[in-house]
């Protein structure tokens, strides 16, 4: 039986596609998700002065706390007064040492000023950066712009637009 296993030619293995050697031995190849699938951002206006922003993370992904930020743009007189972020956990990062991260989905509650009489959509800009724990792969900083309608409080469109700076 050993002869049969060793009968695989080494040139066959060297010419194999990446991950296919693992397939020969029954191992699953793990690939990182595109950032728009790994990290999703949605938001809604609770009332003209309050906003909730949900960061949804896939399992084994995390965001750096100091890379998560929110702002309102393009709406004169409307601004984000305060954003209350949840507590993060400390992770020992190989490159940066002890680092604050969000290892699971979380919600940020914000207060908005100047939106009480506004009837035009406002644009919330969410910036963030995270990593895929399994492979130690980190993504470049990401930006999502979400248009919110003050009349019904809902975001326009099903998914926020993703942009990379």
Total count of strands: 13
Averaging pLDDT over every residue, what do you get?
A: 80
The number of helical elements comes to 4
What string gives the helices and strands in order? Answer: HHHHEEEEEEEEEEEEE
Q: Helical residue percent?
A: 10-25%
- Indicate the low-confidence ranges by residue numbers: 1-24, 156-165
Strand and helix layout:
Layout: H1 2-6, H2 10-14, H3 20-24, H4 35-38, E1 39-47, E2 50-57, E3 61-64, E4 69-73, E5 79-84, E6 89-93, E7 97-102, E8 106-113, E9 122-128, E10 130-132, E11 137-138, E12 142-148, E13 161-163
Antiparallel strand pairs: 1-2, 2-8, 3-7, 3-10, 4-9, 5-8, 6-7, 9-12, 10-11, 12-13
Would you write up a description of this structure?
The protein is mainly β and 165 residues long. It is built from four helices and 13 strands. The strands form three sheets. It has a five-stranded antiparallel β-sheet with strand order 6-7-3-10-11, with no helix packed on it. Strands 1-2-8-5 form a four-stranded antiparallel β-sheet. 19% of the residues are buried.
Summarize the structure.
The protein contains 4 helices and 13 strands. The protein is mainly beta.
């Amino acid at each position: 039986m050993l002869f049969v296993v060793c009968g695989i030619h080494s040139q066959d293995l060297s010419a194999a596609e990446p991950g296919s050697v693992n397939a020969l031995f029954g191992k699953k190849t793990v690939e990182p998700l595109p950032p728009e699938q790994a990290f999703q951002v949605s938001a809604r206006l609770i009332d003209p002065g309050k906003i909730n922003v949900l960061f949804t993370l896939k399992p084994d992904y995390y965001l750096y706390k100091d890379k998560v930020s929110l702002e309102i743009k393009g709406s004169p007189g409307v601004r984000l007064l305060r954003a209350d972020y949840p507590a993060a956990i400390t992770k020992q990062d190989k490159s940066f040492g002890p680092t604050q991260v969000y290892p699971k989905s979380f919600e940020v509650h914000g207060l908005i000023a100047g939106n009480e009489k506004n009837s035009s959509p406002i644009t919330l800009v969410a910036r963030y950066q995270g990593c895929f724990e399994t492979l130690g792969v980190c993504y470049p900083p990401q930006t999502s712009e979400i248009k919110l309608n003050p009349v019904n409080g809902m975001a326009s469109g099903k998914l926020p637009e993703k942009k990379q700076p």
